[in-house]
Amino acid sequence: MAGLTADDYRQQLFALLPQGIVWNSALDSTLQRLLGGQASEFARIDERAVALLPEADPRQALYTFEEWEASYGLPSSCAPAEQSMADRKAALIGRIVGGGGLIAQDYLDLAEGLGYAGAQVLEFREATVEVDTATGHTGSVIGDDINGAHWDLTWRVLLPSGVVRESIIGESVIGDPLRSWGNELVECSLRHAAPSWLILQIGYLEE
Does residue 1 form part of some domain? Predict the structure, then answer.
């Protein structure tokens, strides 16, 4: 989206003057140079306003990125000390679109947003001994784990192992590594998203 140029604003300012031959229209006249100086400032403000539009999207934000982070409580205290811009953006988008919840898919979406596609969530239940009812057997069966009551509140997230994050042109900044790895960020994000009552275990799938 292109804004108005300094010459566009100069012509608009000139058009606002009262009608009459007293107003010199020559570009090298004192009047036109005066209007040109004012128009340059208007064009500068116009340019900055156009540049501000992408800041409404956190994926494109540059000047307001730290404000976006602060609004969502980032960077987290458990996050790695040195994160690339790509990792910071991934954490922010993950926090926005995958804020945690009561269904496993929320955590799968969060993990995928951080580069861990193919994650799994295992849910457990307490081992119970019950008799058959009209609707069928509802208790544990032979071979089930002997889980205590707290297992009803336990999930285990299994993440792909060996994930390497590549630098992306347009998202990385000077100083970011070309490749990065480590699971501190995804583990931190998952634990932050989990409600206080959930016992969240994190493991890794074999390659």
Answer: no
- What percent helix, strand, coil does the chain show, rounded to 5? 40, 15, 50
Q: For residue 126, with 0-12 CB atoms within 10 Å meaning exposed, 13-18 middle and 19 or more buried, which class applies?
A: middle
How many C-beta atoms surround the C-beta of residue 198 within 10 A? 15
75 located within any domain: yes
The DSSP output letter for 124 is -
The answer to whether residues 121 and 172 belong to one domain is yes
| pTM for this prediction | 0.58
State which amino acid sits at residue 34: L
Kindly report, residue by residue over 107-133, the tens digit of the pLDDT.
888 888 788 889 999 988 766 666 555
Q: What is the pLDDT of residues 62-99, one digit of tens each?
A: 889 999 999 988 887 777 777 788 888 888 887 887 65
- What is the DSSP secondary structure assignment for residue 156, as one 8-state letter? E
Tokens (6 digits) for 109: 């979406």
* Amino acid identity at 155: W
- CB neighbour class for 145 (10 Å; exposed up to 12, middle 13-18, buried from 19): exposed
Contact of 191 with 148, CB cutoff 8 Å? no
> What's CA 164's distance to the chain center, in Å?
19
Phi, psi (rounded to 5 degrees) for 164: -120, 130
Distances from the Cα of 201 to the Cα of 59, 85, 191, angstroms: 30, 28, 9
30 shares its domain with 114: no
pLDDT-derived band at 134, boundaries 50, 70, 90: low
